[in-house]
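Supplementary Note 3. Input sequence used for the single-chain structure prediction.
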Amino acid sequence: MNAENAAMTPAAENAVVETATESIGTRFTKKVLAQFASNTGSQIAVTEFQRRLIQGYFIQIDRALAVAEEARVAKNAKNRDHKWDETLPVTWKFVNLQDLAMDLVRYARMGLDMQCENMLFPIPYKNNKTNLYDVTLMPGYNGIRYVAMKYALHKPKADTIELVYSNDKFDPHPKDSRHPVASYEFEITNPFDRGDIVGGFGYLEYDDPTQNELIVMPMAAIRKRMPKYASAEFWGGTKQVYNKETGKKEDTTVEGWLDEMCRKTLIREVFSAKHIVRDPEKLDEDYRVMKAREVAYAEIQAEAEIQEQANTVLIDTAPQPAAPASLPEPKKTIQVDASTGEVLEPQAAPAAKPTSRKAAPAQWDVAEPDF
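The predicted structure, written as discrete structure tokens, is reproduced below.
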């Protein structure tokens, strides 16, 4: 890197990317495919549509890195004790290329579009073992549904997802001797004051109505899927905030995004393989690898949360608004079916020791790209 580029601020570095998105995006795609071939030892054939998806991944990941870098700088400025500052810039130069290339190709072949609303989100986490950033890819609402439908043994013709609040009226009718078809009655009596969340339900409809399924989740079942150290910014609740006047930490109530977290938990349950059975003949290598990668993603998030809680000393820790759809999923203990690659019944787990991961020396530098 020349002296001029070396002196660039993160904002200026990303400005360079924005002015040449198309040409760099094309080179990015070639670099991803070359890295995938290097990792697997074989060339990979992709369609023109899949190439466009990968170029779209570049745009969204670049934006995610820029946002994360701004947050890093702002957080360092708030640290009362700067020994806790994060000094590694969140830029392409410090991205784990090997794992990212593998993930991007597989998600592109599955057809997940990062530029479609709530389908796939990039979230960078620092890997303290490699001193690089792992960019984890998290399916959003539409991504979870898309994967379930793509690999379904019997695809539902319609689906309904609803949270139920204390002022709503919900009367479920499970399939039994009196009800040959599962059904329900649901009424929002006051749309402007629905009360507190008491649970949620999903309803899957098929051409044969006797196959319709009603999935009901009370709030207790939703809370069981909360992480042990659930973030108040996400799930709401109480957190400690440093008071500059008293010089002490004090409990502060945070509203969080409880409705969004409950809805996403409900969607993951309804569209899981337990309710929408996967077709073994459709389960390709990309699907199996994606499911296995969910375990690695959970470990990365757990380590990041542990470091966040252990090393942060802030002057002002007032929560900042966040886009609900891009919130990371909580740490899970996940079992994978060896025959199908399907993740089985994830349950909330206590904090685990950080898991070491193989170092990936390949890195990207977009300020002076080599692709």
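The two ends are 14 Å apart (CA to CA). Confidence is low (pLDDT under 50) at residues 1-21, 311-362, 365-370.
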